[in-house]
Amino acid sequence: LKSAAVPVSATGEPVLVRLSFMPQRVGTAHLQLEIPPVPGEVALANNQRAIEVEVKEGRVEVLFVEGSPRHEYGFIRRSMRDDPMFKVVTLLRLGKGQFYQRADDDSLLTEGFPETDQQLGRYKAVILSDVEASFFTAAQLQLISNFVKTRGGGLLMLGGVDSFNLGGYQTTPLADLLPVSLQPGATSTDFVEGEYTFKLTAAGSDHEILRLTSDPSDNLAQWALMPTLKGFNPLYEAKPGATILATGPAGANGIPSVLLAVQEVGNGRAVAFAPANTWRWRMLRKSDDDTFHRFWQHMIRWVSVGSREFVSASTDTEVASVRQPVTLIAQVLDKSHRPANNAKVAAVVKDRFGNTEKLDLPWVLREDGVYEAVYKPADKGDYDVSVSAELPGGEPMEAHTAFAVTDLSREMTHLAMDVATLGRIAEGGNGTLDLTGNPQKAIASIIEESRTRRKLMDFVQEHALWDAPALLLLIAAAWSFEWLLRKKGGLA
Predict the structure, then answer these.
(1) 82-122 pLDDT per residue, tens
(2) Which of 25, 81, 270, 279 could form a disulfide with 75 if both were Cys (CB 3.0 to 4.6 A apart)?
(3) Count of alpha carbons within 13 Å of 70, Cβ hemisphere only?
C-alpha cells in the first residue's frame, strides 16, 4: 500500500511515521507493517507487526446553513447529495423570514436551526455559508461552540459577504473556535471580488483536505493547474495553534491572505475557508474531472472526523500475545454528549473459530463515562469485539473494535526501555542506575557507591568436622571433660 524512508533517530527516541490508505470495503482491514532487516541484525521477529482497522459504512450527517441561494451553495450541495457517504440537511434562507429546508427527513428543521444539544448532536459537522451572526440567537451561537468543544463536532465557515468579520462573528463565541483572527488589523472591512490563484503551503501540499495524489510534489503540480477563483474574505492572521494550508493575494499590509486554515478545538475541529466560488473548479474543468467533488469530500470528512459517537469501543493494544490480558474499553455519552456513568455495558468477544464470550464492563470510577473489562485470549488469530451500552429509558447502542493475537512475546512488541522497572531493580538490590550508556562511567559509579555503602554482613559457613581436625579435637576434649565431671559427682 505505502512505503516510506525512515530516518534513524540520533538520540535513540522512537520515530513517528504516518502512512495513510483508503479502505475499499466495509469490514476489518488487516494491515501488515514491515521494516527490512539491516546487515547484522539478529532479532528479526519484531520487524513485522499486524494491525486491525475496523472499516464502517455510515453516512456523515452534515447541517448546511446557507444565507443566500448562490452558485457556491448549489454546487457544494449537489456534490455531497450525490455521494453515499454524506447526508446533508440544508437550511437555506430565501429572503427575510423565508427559508427552505431540505433533508431526507422533512421534520428535522421544522423549527429552524436546532435549539438544544440533542437536536444539534445528531450531526457530525455544521457548515455556515454566507450567513451573518445575527441570524442566530446568542443561545444558538453558544450551542455551536459547545457542539465543537464538547461533542467533538466540526465547524466549517465558508467565504461570503456575510461571513467571518463581515458577518459580525468577531464578538461571538465562534470567533474563539475559528483558526483565524477576526480582530481589526487581522481582517479587511471589504470583500475582495478580484481574480486570484489558490496557492498551497508546504503543510497544505500533504494535508488530507488538499491531497489529490499521494506524492506532495505531484500534488502541488496538480493544484497549480486548477482554475483561478474570484471573490474571497481577506484574512491575514492565523491563530498560534492553527495550520495554514493555502494562501492568496497579499493585502495592503503586504501579508498574504489566508484562504484555508484548520485547527483542533477542544474535542472537535474548525476550518476557515475564505473563497466564495469554488464552483469554478467544477465548471472550468473537463466534464469528467472529479477534483471539485474530491476536494469537498475530503473537506467534510476531515472536519467531521473528530465527532464523538454516543458509544465507542477500543482496546489497550492492537496486537497481543496468547494469555496476555487485553483491556476492553467503552466510552459512553448521554443524549447531551456528556459522559454517562449509569449505563449498562457489555462486550461480546468472538475468536476466529466463531466462539463467543460475554463480559460485563463496569464503570471504572476514575473517569466519567469509561467502562472496562479484562479479557485473556486463549489462542492466536483475529478477535472481534462488539460492545453494547444501554442508558436508563434509552435504546441499546452498539460499537465495534478488533485486535489480533500472535506468537510474539511482550518483550518483542514493547522494545522501549522500561526505566521504572530498572529503577526498582536497582533500588531493591541497593544499587545504582546509569542510563548514559557509558560503561566506564557506570563502573566508576559502582566503585564509588561500594566505598560509601560498606556494611557488615552476617553469614554462616558449614564445614564437615573431619575437614577441621582442631575443632574435632576440641569437641572430643569437651566431651571427655564432661564425662570426668559426671563420674566424679557420681552421675556416670
Answers:
(1) 777 788 888 887 766 566 666 544 445 656 788 888 788 88
(2) 279
(3) 18
d(CA 340, CA 310): 10
pTM: 0.64
Is residue 236 a contact partner of residue 186, using CB atoms and an 8 Å limit?
Answer: yes
Cα 412 to Cα 319: distance, rounded to the nearest angstrom: 11
**Does residue 2 contact residue 20 with C-beta atoms inside 8 Å?**
yes
Q: How far is the C-alpha of 205 from the C-alpha of 203, rounded, in Å?
A: 6
Please, is 207 exposed, middle or buried when counting C-beta atoms within 10 Å of its C-beta (0-12, 13-18, 19+)? buried
pLDDT digits (tens, 9 = 90+) for 408-442: 655 555 666 778 888 888 888 877 787 777 778 77
Cell of 129: 455559508
The C-alpha angle with vertex 126 and arms to 139 and 147, in degrees rounded to 5, equals: 50
Alpha helices in 250-389 (DSSP H): 280-283, 291-304
Q: Which amino acid is at 229?
A: L
The rounded distance, in Å, linking the Cα atoms of 211 and 204 is 8
